[in-house]
Design brief:
Number of strands: 0
Strand content: under 5%
Oligomer: single chain
Distance between the termini: 99 Å
Structural class: mainly alpha
Shape: rod-shaped
Largest sheet: none
């Protein structure tokens, strides 16, 4: 390994140590350990350390083809210590500002979409439903009114027909009246027999089903 390669490796590992410190603080900020279950914290920790190890090894592979030396660990520790002493406060303030900015933009966009899209659509649906209900009530009221008018007309017609029938009935000869009464009684008796027959048949059918 040449001297320039060693120098680049040292600088890269110092940078990775500082980056590790920043990523660790970011991880801690979003994890919120007291609110998480232990198995979730364990899984996240394992995944975090695996990713950090892969990033460090990949960086090392790029600068010196993956050769590990003792000073590499010292460089990582120096980078981490430099971050803790010099950059941590600045980074945490910047991280918090970014988080708050993203949350503010998200809420703003959500509110704007609600005002522009969601509420107009809901209002339009409510208006359509109200119109349909109003039309339905109006149509039902119209049907009821028409039914009442037809019922009244039929009552009038039936009363007129009844009076005319009574007049004709009074004008008929007595012999013809008797013939008509006999025919009526015979038809009524036959209708009653038919009704009784179907009633008995339905009763037997229901008993068979049971």
């Amino acid at each position: 390994m040449t001297l320039s390669t060693q120098f680049i490796t040292m600088l890269s590992m110092i940078g990775m140590g500082s980056l590790f410190g920043a990523m660790f603080d970011t991880y801690q900020r979003f994890l919120k350990r007291p609110k998480r279950k232990q198995w979730i914290v364990f899984f996240n920790d394992l995944l975090f350390w695996a990713i950090q190890a892969l990033l460090i090894f990949y960086t090392l592979f790029l600068v010196n083809k993956g050769e590990i030396r003792f000073y590499i660990f010292l460089a990582l520790i120096c980078g981490f210590a430099a971050y803790q002493s010099l950059l941590k406060g600045i980074y945490l303030h910047l991280l918090e500002w970014i988080i708050q900015s993203v949350v503010f933009i998200y809420r703003l966009v959500k509110k704007a979409l609600r005002l522009i899209i969601y509420e107009p659509i809901v209002g339009l649906i409510q208006l359509v439903v109200m119109i349909i209900l109003a039309l339905g009530r109006g149509l039902w009221t119209l049907v009821q009114s028409v039914f009442k008018i037809l019922r009244f007309i039929l009552k009038v017609i039936f009363a007129i027909v009844k009076k005319i029938s009574l007049i004709f009935w009074r004008l008929l000869p007595k012999g013809l009246k008797k013939s008509v009464e006999k025919l009526y009684n015979r038809l009524a008796g036959n209708f009653k027999k038919i009704t009784n027959f179907f009633g008995k048949w339905l009763t037997k059918w229901n008993k068979r089903k049971k």
